[in-house]
Amino acid sequence: MTQDQNKLDSSERRLLSRRNVLVTMGALPVLTATASVIGASEAAAATAVINPSVQRQTIRGFGGMTHTAWIGDLTAAQRDTAFGTSEGRLGFSVLRIPVPENQANWSRDLATARRAIELGATVIASPWNPPASMVETFVRGSQTNAKRLRYDMYGAYAQHLNNFITHMRNNGVNLYGISVQNEPDYAHDWTWWTPAEMVRFLRENASSIGTRVIAPESFQYLKNISDPILNDSVALANVDIIGAHLYGTSYANFPYPLFKQRGAGKELWMTEVYYPNSSDSADLWPQALDVGEHIHRAMVDAEFQAYIWWYIRRSYGPMREDGQISKRGAVMAQFARFVRPGYVRVDATANPASNVYVSAYRGGSNTVVIVAINKGTSAVSQQFTLANSTASSVSSWLTDASRNVAPQGTTSMSNGSITVTLPARSMTTIVTGVNSSPSPIPTPTPTPTPSPSGSTGPCRVAYTMNSWNNGFTANISITNTGTSTINGWTLVFTLPSGQSITSGWNATYTPSSGQVSARNVGHNSTLAPGATIDIGFQATHTGNTAEPTAFTLNGIPCTVV
User: Fold this and answer.
1) Which of 108, 172, 232, 320 gives 68 a disulfide partner, CB atoms 3.0 to 4.6 angstroms apart?
2) Contact, 391 vs 420, CB < 8 A?
3) d(CA 437, CA 393)
């Protein structure tokens, strides 16, 4: 270990020690379609009602941070573990990387960022310091060498961020967003910004930045840091994502009424945290369930659209130093693998019993994901009912003291309800396909003659686009409306002129523009009758944000809704 690495580890220990002070403030689940007999050690809970038609926030993903300069890069195998979605993977869909102040170091995290993009993740970046030539020192309380960006360098700093965006794009990584400053209000070891300085930069310089702008990334979601942005119409117009960290933030401070009042059209992300501390092993159980409740509260109480851990690989992180998924990681994967980018949180009974926490998400038009956490010491018999919907087969995955995201098989719902035994101190994710009710089921479309590619039934496609100044993301839901299973599929569509795919998820896309073929990947090659899969991609555009008008699945035209 080099002397510089020793210094960095020492700095990390000081930082984590300060933050830890802030932060400190069973059996298989039984799935039945009818009410089950409740045993002596199994408590009954109020019905958890899931209403897929009442939509909340759109989810952008779950993920973590890499910082090669401080702790080394992920290995190739660790990248696949972090961002893969199959069994034994974390399923992360967001990567956060640093913006080094020295341009010579801009490629340090590139290999991991590229692989994350290839596996369908989005990448954001945060700076700790501007280039040294742009910084001045000042006295801040007892700190005599505090750093801040010089006022006359605001324009140059915006160009510095743009240069980093361009460097990453030219090397295969199209950043989803870039922050103005990591933790401007907790900058003992980096650069301080006052709320007024942040607003001034956003007003005068942020409009020139060539991707989504993230601010202010307060270390403790302090509203006096973000309120001035929301209260200034010009600054607010030039920011795209209100970012926050949750070190020591109480659950009572998770809601943000001012953002709900004034943040229309903006996104709300939790861009960094570890929880409940960095001193304990990530494999402690049931302590790891605290992470599950923390994510639940971040989704339900705070209505964040993304949840990003600090280091992906660390003794207290989702991946141990040996590259294996920790208990904290398994808890995160119960969300990340199944609640994918573009899914929407829907209304659900959040706390149907003491120590039971429920959230639900809808993907495309047919998939509903329910995440249920039982922090109690006894099993709970929990009924879930889908309002105004009927469901097909139900699959579930379990994490408890002895298992990590273990598949629990499939069953079916009865009249839109299912009863699940949530083991003591466990976490269960339920995935089901739904159909809206009481709308009548449409008459099946006559099945066309099978093509040589092997399709045996019709299909339906829903295409949802989210665009900004020079780019967009698209989510595509593909439903098999036929009566036979499709084994292996290719979806073909034509992108309008000027649009070009830069990354994608849940499918492989070739070529990047013109007539595109999206082919299945390993985990979604089979499409059962009535089943829906969600795929998507990120792309650039030159002003044309039109949507594709036609889709074929294995050569057979699909209905577009």
Assistant:
1) 108
2) no
3) 16
pLDDT value, residue 275: 98
How far is residue 285 from each of residues 81, 400, 403, 445, measured CA to CA in Å?
22, 8, 11, 51
Instruction: For residues 213 and 486, give the distance between their C-alpha atoms in angstroms, rounded to a whole number.
Output: 42
Q: Where are the alpha helices (DSSP H) in 238-361?
A: 257-262, 289-300, 327-336
436 CB neighbour count, 10 Å cutoff: 13
- What is the distance between the alpha carbons of residues 275 and 290, in angstroms, rounded to a whole number? 8
The label of the residue with tokens 């006559």 reads 446
d(CA 325, CA 355): 25
Q: Which residues of the chain have pLDDT under 70?
A: 1-15, 17-19, 21-43, 436-457, 522
Burial of 114 (0-12, 13-18, 19+ CB in 10 A): middle
Q: Which residues are catalytic?
A: 183, 272
Helix runs in 171-213, H state only = 195-204
Contact between residue 401 and residue 393 where contact means Cβ atoms under 8 Å apart:
no
Q: Where are the beta strands (DSSP E) in 237-378?
A: 241-245, 267-272, 306-311, 344-348, 356-363, 367-374
* DSSP string for 465-490: EEE-SSEEEEEEEEEE-SSS-EES-E
CB 120 within 8 A of CB 538: no
* Partners of 1 in beta bridges: none
Backbone φ, ψ for residue 294 (5° rounding)? -60, -45
Q: Any idea what the Cα angle at residue 251 is, between residues 250 and 255, rounded to 5°?
A: 115
Q: What share of the chain is helix, strand, coil (3-state, %, to 5)?
A: 25, 35, 40
Whole-Å CA distances, 272 to 43, 46, 334, 428, 517? 36, 34, 19, 25, 36
Joined together, the tokens standing for residue 547 give 């949507």
Euclidean distance between CA atoms 176 and 484, whole angstroms: 39
| C-beta separation of 220 from 248 below 8 A | yes
Residue 548 in 3-state DSSP? coil
9, 17 contact by CB (below 8 A)? no
pLDDT value at residue 5: 41
